[in-house]
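Ticket #4471: structure export looks truncated?
Reporter: QA, pipeline team
Priority: medium

Steps to reproduce: submit the single chain below to the structure queue and open the exported record.
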Amino acid sequence: MKNTLTASLLLSAALLLAPFSSAWACATCACGDPTLMSMGTEQPFEGRLRLSSTLRGWGHTVGQDGVNAMRLREARMDVAAAYAPLPWLFLSATLPLQAREIRDVSLSRERGWGVGELELTAKAFLFRDRAFSAKHLFSVLGGVKLPTAPVLRGADGEMLNLDAQIGSGSVDPLAGVAYQHFRGDWSFLVSTTGFLPTRGIMGFRAGASIRTTLAAQFQPATRWALRMAFDSRLEAPADINGEREENGGGFIGYASPDVLFSPGMDVVVAAGVRVPFINQLRGRVSSTPIAMLSVAYDL
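Actual output as written to the record:
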């Protein structure tokens, strides 16, 4: 695990230094569209290879303050690579590095960190109105999350609390559809992805969920753009060995403003926040905003 962590950190450092190195090719020229796009929303062309690193910080509190509240905080770095072997196909892999802390009402703490669970996806573009500088794109997505995270234990050898674990230990398939439209300085995205988790460690099974994104982006200049999105998650309650958890499951919606900036050819830096302004989760679940910073580099 230590070797994997070191390799991932070196890759992230290389991405952060990418603006100061020379690119092999111009991705904008190859796809015919100058729109700055974050990882996972780019237009494909054969041979495109994109690397990215995304930092996130978030947390939530479950339960009633002063009674049974449990607070979770997480810092996460996703290291990802996406490659297009064909003009209509993107293959990608994402490996997270995570650090978690939970604190209960008694103020006792548990901390866990390490390499998280690898996600592999294939994105096929079934329709594009033209091969070069497409204005309409329709794609489907399929993939799986694999149980690559270790089971974390304390100094006494006992397993850490389920919420301190950085992985579920389950094999979780996912599938989705997306539509993108490009019109001058504007671009739009509509996407829906479904997740169907299986049972993992400690008998835990996360609820099936549907995640959606509605986004509009305005790019008045070559080097920067503003993006506004509504992200949502609708999920069934989780259970442990068939016993449904009291808190969790339901609907939550986020307002997601981002700023995208290109400091050099084939480099896109994005910074933003996901603010939970609709919270219809069951029980007592209070979520914090999610801070995000990413850099993507086309080789």
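Status: closed, not a bug. The export was complete when the record was re-opened. Leaving a note from the reviewer for reference: Helices lie at 2-16, 27-31.
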